[in-house]
Amino acid sequence: MDIRFDGKTALVTGAASGIGEAIALDLGRAGARVIVADLHEPAAEKVAAQIRAEGGTGIAAGGDVADPQVVEGLVDLARRNGGLHLLVNNAGIGGEGKPTGDYSLDGWHRVIDVNLNAVFYGLRFGIPAMLDAGGGAIVNMASILGSVGYAGSPAYVAAKHAVVGLTKAAAIDYGDKGIRANAVGPAFIDTPLLSHMPKEKIDWLVSRHPVGRLGTAAEVSALVLFLLSEQASFITGSYHLVDGGYTAP
């Protein structure tokens, strides 16, 4: 399946590592101009530089997507580089691990700001830019925890469930205007986010996936690129799991 995005500009948030990095690199290889956005701009520049080294166009941008002015600026950057055609709201944090009754207020607000509000900001500023560009496609990064619960992660679970709903609302609002919006729900993926976990916890996580392993960022990216492409032109408002069977039992 040959997916190309020549002449299109993509904005990917949380693109300096893990799933976001894989998506940004794959978009660059598929011909898109890629705005590589991340809280850590030097790390984003490394990814953008790799895109350029492979013959693509990579543009690094730093900033906290929990700030709506930052997100508006990222969209403006895309406008100045051909217009916004592809948007991947990927930035996210895990947050503290505490049961609901012990969860800190500051921790709650930070997770909701990054994992949910930032997705809304991406849609709020990105959709008008896409309309000006003649349409486009959006993928919002949810999680398996957009459909099931997980102990000690009330803010993350709540945010990811809400991202699925927000995606469906946007798809309905703009389905007849040339904009598609879908959500992707990875299970536990072998990325730096899991690097702090002890081996026993990793082994337990592996055991929760019927395929017997964690997923890879490349496997998530492959689905994201398909959903962004014209080959998925009749797919919108959907929530697609990449979970190795995690939610099947």
Question: What labels describe this entry?
Answer:
7 helices, seven-stranded parallel sheet, 249 residues, Rossmann fold, alpha/beta
What low-confidence regions span 5 or more consecutive residues with pLDDT below 50?
Answer: none
Strand order across the largest sheet: 3-2-1-4-5-6-7
Shape: globular
Order of helices and strands: EHEHEHEHEHEHHE
Instruction: Estimate the strand proportion.
Output: 15-25%
CATH fold group: Rossmann fold
Tell me the name of the CATH class. Alpha Beta
Q: What profile does the largest beta sheet have?
A: 7 strands, parallel
Average pLDDT score: 97
The CATH superfamily title: NAD(P)-binding Rossmann-like Domain
CATH architecture tag: 3-Layer(aba) Sandwich
The total beta strand count reads: 7
Helix-strand makeup class: alpha/beta
The helix count comes to: 7
Helix percent reads: 40-55%
What does the model show?
With 249 residues, this protein is α/β, with parallel strands linked by helices. The chain has a single domain, classed as Rossmann fold (3-Layer(aba) Sandwich). It has 7 helices and 7 strands. The chain has helices at residues 18-29, 41-53, 68-79, 105-133, 154-174, 199-207, 217-228, and strands spanning 9-12, 33-38, 57-62, 86-89, 136-141, 179-186, 239-242. It has a 7-stranded parallel β-sheet, sandwiched between helices. The longest helix has 29 residues, at 105-133. It starts with 8 loop residues before the first strand and ends in a 7-residue tail after the last strand. The mean pLDDT is 97.
